[in-house]
């Protein structure tokens, strides 16, 4: 496999990461409390979005997909459906293992996106069900975005460092470009986040996420 030319190689110091065990415990406590509170407060929004999705197009309101989480373990991610039913069967992922750094999962011109789905993506409201993933413990509020298995199987060793921590709803990559940046740049952001992880850093990224979502940058 060719070396990634667009990403400066980052090697995570695993011993240093392991020494932050107490901060990871605090992170998990905050994840649990904030996701629980968020679900409780946003329950009326969940209901409104459920009705809007069901009214707009046929199919379930909730979208489930297998993603790869910490230590390479698969889990099911929850999102509000933004595409027509069976959308995954109507698109062939063009993944070039030799050009993985330029892979982009989302597309602005995707005609499978519904009218309500376009709004949900623009506002990132489609991500709200992932609070249940955080509550369960297979995701965090902040971390690398969880990738699909079809892409992870081509990860070179440096990319696999992305799996050292729980994936997140938001992260450094999301506040730096969200949907439109290439995988190579996303990996760089994710590894930079892992390398510099702290609870304070997470809090800063959560505030930046609110600002990014408000502006609607990079969402589609």
In the predicted model, the low-confidence regions spanning at least 5 consecutive residues are: 1-7
The ordered string of helix (H) and strand (E) elements is HHEEHHEHHEHHH
- Give average pLDDT, whole number: 88
What is the total tally of β strands? 4
Tally the structural domains. Answer: 1
Given the helix and strand composition, which structural class is it? mainly alpha
- How widely separated are the two ends? 31 Å
**Sheet of most strands:** 2 strands, antiparallel
- What is the helix tally? 9
What spatial form do the alpha-carbon principal axes imply?
A: globular
Give the percentage of residues in beta strands.
5-15%
State the helical fraction. 40-55%
Rounded radius of gyration (Å)? 17 Å
As laid out across the biggest beta sheet, the strand order is: 1-2
Characterization of this structure:
This protein is mainly α and 220 residues long. It has one domain. The chain has helices at 14-18, 21-56, 115-123, 130-136, 149-152, 157-160, 172-176, 183-195, 199-215; strands at 62-68, 74-80, 140-142, 168-170. Helix 2 (21-56) runs antiparallel to helix 4. The model is unreliable at 1-7 (pLDDT under 50).
